[in-house]
Amino acid sequence: MNLLEPIVAWQNDLAAIRRDFHMHPELGYEEFRTSDIVAAKLQEWGIEVHRGLAGTGVVGTIRGNLPGSRSLGLRADMDALPMDEVNTFEHASKNPGKMHGCGHDGHTTMLLAASRYLAQYRNFAGTVYVIFQPAEEGGGGAKRMVDEGLFDLFPMDAVFGMHNWPGMKVGQFAVASGPIMASSNTFKITIDGKGCHGGMPHMGIDPVMAAVQMAQSLQTIITRNRDPIDPAVISITQIHAGTADNVVPTEAILRGTVRTFTLETLDLIERRMEEISRHTAAAMGCEVNFEFRRLYPPTINHAAEAAFCTEVMRDMVGATNVNPEVKPSTGAEDFSFMLLEKAGAYIWAGNGSGDHRDAGHGMGPCMLHNGSYDFNDELLPVGATYWTQLALRWLAQPAA
């Protein structure tokens, strides 16, 4: 691997910073300690700091010493998950019910390392904006930063994101031209019937049977309405009804999630779900209330920027360690909101299989959103070098 020597030399310092973040996880919009440390580090390295976007967001501005007008943004997420950590090693979470189970502690540290390098050398033309975002885990922090003027206050030509990816070796990267993460959406369908004695069902209107029929019918959207080569998921994850064995309840509720890789398919699924819910309920003599919440749109990389990232990664680790057309994940990512506004790309960096974890890790796999997860500190100089080389090469291009 072609890593930047100064960043490699900072390995121990970076690991200490990352593990400190891991020990003190903070949930979305509560990253007060984390953002204080980020801002202090940036200021220590002579970087202009802006605070307050999306509450706890931090943006650093790093200007090169050479003349040039190009600019780009590099984004890292800072928040933890509302879950308990089962690891017992020294740097395990000290905050019950909060854990860096997705590696945002590592993302923040890698971007800090790149910021330090860029600020120390400044041998480039143009401007790098380093974006430390709150509330990726369901809080929509990226959208809030955009809505509060991120791209107006910091005009940039493109914006880039990165996520660690368990199962890929450290030193391996993946990207896709087009969708790389799915949209995230939730639904709640409330069916109102008429309660009665379970032994006299003809005296009521059974919402449970309507829910059963509805649950089966909704899957026909995937098998009969959706284009078979356009992946999508409808998962009914909850059905709630009744409190007693001999009572037909008055109400039944279905909840779940929908994932798609295009907005057009999402439009189709939402429309058909509402139609099927309404007509199925009517056929069973029930009333229905259909609620559909669009949380995160699909994360869709721009082709030119994805290709640019691929070349940077290949020069770092070799072509055999870069997958330029990885199969997308049905997980979701709010960096999607930034890509709706700006050209850019989102890539995955290998986090290993879990062998890096200190003694005292949980018995579960080292997968994202798992109580046994831990970020791989070997990735820190790799990700930081990628960020730095991406910025330097992007800014070295001729002005548009």
What characteristic shape results from the CA principal axes? Answer: elongated
Task: Return the string of H and E elements.
Answer: HHHEEEHEHHEEEEEHHEEEHEEHEHEH
Structural class determined from secondary elements: alpha/beta
Count of domains: 2
The number of helical runs is 12
The CATH topology of the largest domain is given as Aminopeptidase
Averaged pLDDT:
97
The CATH superfamily of the largest domain is known as Zn peptidases
Radius of gyration: 24 Å
Biggest sheet, strands in spatial order?
1-2-4-3-5-16-6-15
State the CATH architecture of the largest domain: 3-Layer(aba) Sandwich
- Describe the main β-sheet briefly: 8 strands, mixed
CATH class of the largest domain: Alpha Beta
Helix content: 25-40%
| Alpha-carbon distance between the two ends | 31 Å
Poorly predicted parts: none
- The tally of strands reads 16
Keywords:
single chain, 400 residues, alpha/beta, Aminopeptidase, Alpha-Beta Plaits, 2 domains, 8-stranded mixed beta sheet, 4-stranded antiparallel beta sheet, 12 helices, 16 strands, 25% strand, elongated
Summarize the structure.
Its cofactor is Mn(2+). This is Amidohydrolase. This protein has 400 residues and is of the alpha/beta class.
Task: Write the SSE topology.
Blueprint: H1 5-9, H2 11-23, H3 32-44, E1 48-51, E2 58-63, E3 66-77, H4 104-121, E4 125-133, H5 141-147, H6 150-153, E5 158-165, E6 173-174, E7 179-181, E8 184-192, E9 196-197, H7 207-218, H8 220-225, E10 232-241, E11 247-248, E12 251-260, H9 263-283, E13 287-296, E14 299-300, H10 303-317, E15 322-323, H11 336-341, E16 343-350, H12 379-395
Parallel strand pairs: 3-4, 3-5, 5-16, 6-15
Antiparallel strand pairs: 1-2, 2-4, 6-16, 7-14, 8-12, 8-13, 9-11, 10-12
Helix pairs in contact: 2-4, 4-12, 7-9, 10-12
